[in-house]
Amino acid sequence: YSLDGLLVFGLLLVCTCAYLRKVPRLKAWLLSEKRGVWGVFYKAAVIGTRLHVAVAVSCVLMAFYVLVVK
User: Fold this and answer.
1) DSSP character for 1?
2) According to the model, what pLDDT value does residue 1 have?
3) Exposed, middle or buried, 17 (CB in 10 Å: 0-12/13-18/19+)?
4) Which of 2, 9, 26, 28 lies 20 to 30 Å from 40, alpha-carbon distance?
5) Cβ atoms 17, 48 nearer than 8 A
6) For 18-44, b where at least 16 C-beta lie within 10 A, e where not — what string?
């Protein structure tokens, strides 16, 4: 396990949850709970929606790091 793997996982979680928040049926099913284990997905979706520019820049930088530097 490494820090960059954890960062990739976190970015993918935030991006996926933000995308799923735009789908009405999945939003009602997956992102309706705001507490507990399912609340993590809700909070990731909120972060991805509100900080979409920062998340997008982070994804591009992480992709460059994984593909070129590493």
Assistant:
1) -
2) 78
3) buried
4) 2
5) yes
6) bebbeeeeeeeebbeeeeeeeeebbeb
> Can you give the pLDDT of all 70 residues of the chain as single tens digits?
789 899 999 999 999 999 988 888 877 887 788 888 888 988 999 999 999 999 999 999 999 999 998 8
Q: What is the pTM of this model?
A: 0.84
Instruction: Provide CB contacts within 8 A for 45, sequence distance 6+.
Output: 14, 17, 18, 20, 21, 31
Report residue 21 as tokens.
């928040």
**Cβ-Cβ contacts under 8 Å for 27 (sequence gap 6 or more):** 20, 21
